Amino acid sequence: AYKMQLLSPLPSHVLHKALGVRPRLHYKQGGTTALREGEAPTAPATNDGNTQRTPPNGFSSSQESRRRSAAEGGAASHSNFPSRPDVLSAVASTTLVLALTGQALRMVAPIASPAVWLGHADALQHYLSQGVSSPSLALDAGVVAGVSAARWCLMALVSGFKASSNASNAQALSACSPLDVVWVGAIPGAAEEWCFRGGLLPAISPDWRGAAVTAIVFGLLHLLDRRRTPVSAAWATGVGAAYGALYLHTGNVADAALAHALSNVVSGLGYKLGGTQAPDTPS
């Protein structure tokens, strides 16, 4: 009956009835399907003899393996972000370096600035003597609004810029609370203005030439971050020029510092809270 079943095109239940043979259950033997009377059906065996079982969550073995790999990969990716103490420590050290560099530039500018050789010593002294005073809040708020709107539009139109911005924000802000974001965004931003606009700009030339050179240097330095793109560098150059123009207009480095700090906070909170991020680029 077994050999006839292998060769016959008839259904097995027809053969069993015609031959008077009780149905037998299938089992694996040497790669050929056979029958053994009274044997309970089992799941197919693996090469090592272990019975394959479907996990209780409903996934097959291969699906379960892929799911676990994806979960482990996501956990590993998240673990690559610095911890909150590391972020705050980096902010403190960076702020200190920028502040000291800016102060050093302001000290050597009256001696080494090209403005002195070009006969602009009085203009240089004017900007250096201003120091830090009460900022023009309305003017600074307008600059913050303009920078934030321009960033939002650029993120909506250029997917590469949005990707690099989100990657940098994720690296710096993933372990931070919204309150931390205020400090992480504001303090380095203000320190950068003290260094670049308050120190480097007058040390080069206290006019549009100094603002232009400082903005270009500011933009190029952003390329040191591997997550940044040429578009990001161009963006940093543009906002650097805006902060430089603000400084030249008011003569008060506090205006540039406040505008930069608030722009960073708006960007960071927009990323962290998710409510003000620019939409994905339309397909």
UniProtKB/TrEMBL annotation:
Composition bias (Polar residues) maps to 44-59
| Region listing for Disordered, in residue ranges | 32-82
Q: List GO molecular-function terms, semicolon-separated.
A: endopeptidase activity
Question: Where do the CAAX prenyl protease 2/Lysostaphin resistance protein A-like domain residues begin and end?
Answer: 179-266
Q: Which InterPro entries has this protein been placed in?
A: Rce1/LyrA-like_dom
What GO biological process terms are annotated to this protein in UniProt?
Answer: CAAX-box protein maturation
Q: Which PANTHER family match?
A: CAAX AMINO TERMINAL PROTEASE, CAAX AMINO TERMINAL PROTEASE FAMILY PROTEIN
Query: Which protein is depicted?
Result: CAAX prenyl protease 2/Lysostaphin resistance protein A-like domain-containing protein
Naturally occurring in which organism (per UniProt)? Auxenochlorella protothecoides
